[in-house]
């Protein structure tokens, strides 16, 4: 095993196996449901021995993400090891032109990534769509539904943290993953709020992601793994932080 000890991924060992389903599928299957040609997880001894009890091989799952984060030649030069999650996340942020401080805590950078997608999505919504989204998302004390006003409201939620931040994270991540793969997060299956809001975001976020997907195709196929994986990791981290 070539897993690099990574404090930003260590929390995965505390997540139930079912919560890791989305991450494992992202690493092993493409948007069409076909096994990725470049993945090595499903042929590993750990996967064969423990699947679907992902909790027992969380480090091998983390290793797979680290390997996707580096290119094949570079991984060889690293003696078969990939790159740390922070490097993967900031690389995705750079590609998507996210404004962030590289010295911030990892969850803060993840929030910046989420806000970038949300801001771009809100910009592509009509005023009526923004009003409905604000209502369903439970934004309090907002009297203007301009993109700027709504962005400030969601930024305040992320700064405050707590369960509301977790809900907003699920809304964004579920919308992203469903748009990419056609299936939502298993984490969000029983959350009616997430379902309603994700439906409202479907059109606008689809428009945003279509342009992002073009950038990813230019940047390289590994981003088709690392980009959605960072969103899933962000959702898992928020759940872990909330102790849910």
UniProtKB/TrEMBL annotation:
Residues 3-37 form the DUF3944 domain. Residues 54-228 form the Ubiquinol-cytochrome c chaperone domain. Pfam families: DUF3944, Ubiq_cyt_C_chap. Belongs to the UPF0174 family. This is Uncharacterized protein YaaW, UPF0174 family. It comes from Dethiosulfovibrio salsuginis.
